[in-house]
Amino acid sequence: MLKHLFKVALNWIKKEPSTDRTTKFYSKSQHILIDGKPKLDVSAAKAFKGNPNLYNPEDLLLSSLTSCHMMSYLYCCAQHKIEVISYTDHSEATLVVNADGSGKIIVVNLFPEVIIADETQIELALSLHKKANELCFIANSCNFPCLS
């Protein structure tokens, strides 16, 4: 088994000094720093009083799953000598929020649309989405279904 370590630095600073010590509102915007990559500005989702112009953790989780599935799928296609011409997806994640404020994503649905060079390989190409889901590092790390 190979192990790889990934590191992220998060930087948040209170922007406006509050005179009301009982306030429960803090800015939800932060910077994510990953060595050698551009700064990623993140906030909470608009529904949770975040900055709607910034990425939010839910966006990033869904993006990770969508991207990882595509890369796993392209790997599977290469293994079977299927030439992929294009791959698009319009994925969705369903988040439920409980009365106590906790919540979780309960399902992710992927809707990949793939164009391949050889139409005689369509059936095989379609079947490889299941194998791609089994190989996807991010999907394997989640406790909810990721369906394609």
From TrEMBL:
InterPro entries per record: KH_dom-like_a/b (IPR015946), OsmC/Ohr_fam (IPR003718), OsmC/Ohrsf (IPR036102), OsmC_Ohr_Peroxiredoxin (IPR052707)
Gene3D superfamilies: 3.30.300.20
Signal peptide residue numbers: none
Domain of life: Bacteria
Name of this protein: Osmotically inducible protein OsmC
Organism: Empedobacter stercoris
